[in-house]
Write a structure and sequence with these properties.
about 180 residues; mainly alpha; three-stranded antiparallel β-sheet
């Protein structure tokens, strides 16, 4: 159990440093996919595209969460609060969701130390990640649904159409979205 907590602590500790690189890599891969996309092949998105959106949104949400959690004292709360400009006797309070780290003085006034952008970023990232999982499930369901006999016959009949110059060109129907 101790080793799992240590790994979790290290993940949260290094997430603000690592997640921007993960997010930039996923965004670059999404741009490459968008440039290689065949026109008219928008829905449903492929599983790889959904996985990249999930990775991008999840890394942004986890990085923002880790940044908010780590925006508090790690060793001595008293010194940290006085360094932040909170005068008098104080206590540090923490909340996990929504992310909150506050220096509360003895008279009840609190100073929030987590940036105002943290919680909306975490919630937006989680919502986009949930939408990516839903799109992934819809794409999987769409691809696993068998064609009716009439639709299969139509797909076979229209898979090869004459081009304006007389050549025959393959039209992407059903299977791969990328030309061969």
């Amino acid at each position: 159990m101790t080793s799992a907590l240590t790994l979790l602590y290290l993940a949260v500790l290094f997430a603000p440093i690592v997640t921007p690189f993960v997010a930039l890599g996923a965004a670059a891969a999404l741009v490459r996919r968008a440039r290689a996309r065949v026109p008219g092949s928008g829905w449903p998105p492929g599983g790889g595209t959904c996985a990249l959106v999930l990775l991008l949104a999840g890394s942004v949400a986890f990085g923002a969460y880790a940044w908010g959690v780590m925006s508090g004292p790690l060793l001595d709360p008293g010194q940290w609060c006085s360094a932040q400009g909170v005068a008098g006797d104080r206590v540090v309070t923490r909340m996990s969701l929504p992310v909150s780290v506050r220096c509360v003085t003895s008279d009840g006034h609190g100073t929030e130390m987590v940036g105002s952008w943290i919680n909306p970023t975490v919630c937006t990232g989680l919502a986009v990640a949930a939408l990516a999982v839903g799109a992934w499930a819809a794409a999987l369901r769409y691809r696993l649904t068998p064609l009716s006999p009439d639709a299969a016959a139509l797909a076979r009949a229209t898979a090869r159409t004459p081009h304006a110059g007389g050549a025959v060109r393959r039209r992407a129907v059903g299977g791969s979205r990328f030309p061969r």
